[in-house]
Design brief:
Layout (H helix, E strand, L loop, with lengths): L6 H12 L4 E4 L1 H7 L8 E4 L3 H7 L3 E5 L4 E6 L2 E7 L1 E3 L11 E3 L3 H6 L9 E3 L3 E3 L4 H6 L9 H7 L2 H13 L5 H10 L8 H12 L7 H6 L3 H4 L1 H6 L13 H10 L5 H9 L4 H4 L1 E2 L5 E2 L3 H15 L4 H13 L8 H11 L4 H13 L6 H20 L13 H6 L6 H16 L6 H12 L2
Parallel strand pairs: 2-5
Antiparallel strand pairs: 1-2, 1-8, 3-4, 4-5, 6-7, 8-9, 10-11
């Protein structure tokens, strides 16, 4: 098998080989190349020790030198070059207490998580596959290298990575590996929130976000996202729905593009439903106020998983407004753009569409036609540059002060009132009309 290695990867491998060392591309880049996918990055493994690697390349960074990793810089690109190693005992379900360097490539591959990630390649030897990675790629399986319980006991994050790779590649998890996942899932509590967050996002933005259901069935969400478990089996006895809350969420996740903000919004949008569900005398379920409860849950979970403030702000706002419906009129759409935010409005439309498509056929066409009409009005409002924000108002705080208003709360309230006045009718957004409005209000 021939893999076309990038020029700079070849340069690194050739330089190491010229000086008497073994060197190979290794791991995910080899797997992705075989699958005809474009690797995100290229990792290199070598028999050279870190200090020897550093002597052979002009620009290097000690990224993880105690574990044998040196980053080699070539132009604007960087490549991790790691010495063959054997991991010592793992004490925290994540990191080895020590590593020992070795000259044996197979020993290095043996410590890796899954067979499909334990292959190495160079142009001289070609593919090195000591643990059946190629066979598992052909059979579409996620299987641990060696004994699954050992691999997951060494690093509990591998438990979540198994489901993430399953979602990215659409490969089922091999039964013995799945059994070990189920048994050791509780050890995920030892993993940092940041690591959990990174894997969860990769799972959600994968081609198969619905595999989060596998994470539930294997006991993973019980540890990292118990809020998901609370949705499972919660029926929605209403003409608008045909799935329980969790199943509806799975369909909604698949209905939006692979965008972090959109997928997180769909994950959280109905999480408040179990807490607010009521059933009337006709056996019909109601979920009044679920959007606000879902917003609070989303904020709590995202804070727990250490998401950045910008992501928290955008996702919680979209969750809050995901059920916000309006008659498609220019005034209504302008007001919604003002409330939700011009930047987030296309996301809001995508969220509403995904939600509607994941519901029952009842009034679905009507809902979708409404969303399309709102989208068309939104686009017209942008094209016409109609005033939606304070920044677009024809007057500023300085103009109001020139009319005699003092800085402070009253001035801020007047600006907000003027914005509402203009949102009702964009033709009013002239300095003359707005100043006359203020003079009349202030009896000037």
């Amino acid at each position: 098998m021939k893999i076309n290695l990038p020029r700079k990867v070849l340069m690194i491998i050739n330089n190491l080989q010229l000086h008497g060392y073994e060197a190979y591309a290794v791991g995910g880049c080899v797997r992705d190349s075989i699958l005809a996918r474009r690797p995100e990055d290229w990792d290199i493994t070598t028999s050279a020790r870190p200090e020897e690697i550093k002597k052979l390349f002009r620009r290097t960074v000690d990224t993880g030198i105690e574990h044998g990793t040196v980053t080699v810089l070539l132009g604007k690109d960087s490549y991790e070059v790691t010495t063959y190693r054997i991991d010592g005992a793992y004490e925290d379900s994540r990191h080895p207490k020590e590593v020992r360097f070795t000259n044996n490539l197979e020993e290095d591959l043996r410590r890796r998580d899954f067979t499909i990630n334990a292959m190495a390649y160079n142009d001289e030897v070609r593919l090195v596959d000591a643990f059946g990675g190629m066979q598992d790629l052909n059979h579409h399986l996620i299987r641990c290298v060696g004994e699954p319980k050992e691999r997951f006991s060494e690093d509990a994050l591998r438990i979540l990575r198994a489901v993430r790779f399953s979602a990215q590649l659409d490969f089922p998890i091999e039964p013995k590996t799945a059994e070990a996942v189920r048994e050791l899932a509780p050890t995920l509590k030892n993993i940092s929130a940041e690591r959990i967050q990174a894997e969860l996002v990769k799972l959600l933005v994968s081609p198969h976000p619905e595999r989060i259901q596998d994470a539930y069935e294997l006991g993973i969400t019980k540890v990292i996202l118990p809020e998901w478990d609370a949705m499972v089996g919660v029926e929605q006895n209403t003409p608008h729905h045909k799935y329980d809350v969790a199943q509806h969420t799975l369909h909604a996740l698949k209905n939006v593009k692979r965008d972090k903000i959109l997928r997180l919004t769909m994950l959280f949008h109905d999480m408040g439903k179990p807490a607010v569900r009521t059933t009337d005398e006709n056996g019909r379920d109601h979920f009044k106020g679920h959007a606000l409860v879902s917003e609070e849950i989303a904020r709590k979970v995202m804070r727990r998983l250490k998401f950045d403030n910008d992501t928290v702000k955008k996702v919680t706002r979209l969750v809050c407004y995901h059920d916000y419906r309006m008659e498609a009129t220019p005034k209504n759409v302008r007001r919604a753009m003002n409330r939700i935010g011009v930047e987030l409005f296309p996301y809001y439309l995508a969220v509403r569409m995904a939600d509607a498509k994941a519901q029952s056929p009842y009034r679905r066409r009507e809902k979708i036609e409404n969303i399309i009409a709102v989208r068309e009005l939104y686009q017209e409002i942008l094209i016409n540059d109609e005033c939606i924000t304070l920044r677009q108002l024809a007057v500023s705080g300085r103009d109001l002060m020139e009319l005699g208003m003092r800085p402070g709360r009253e001035l801020g309230s007047m600006l907000s009132e003027l914005l509402e006045y203009v949102i009702d009718d964009p033709q009013r957004n002239t300095k003359e009309i707005l100043c006359d409005y203020v003079k009349e209000k202030l009896d000037l």
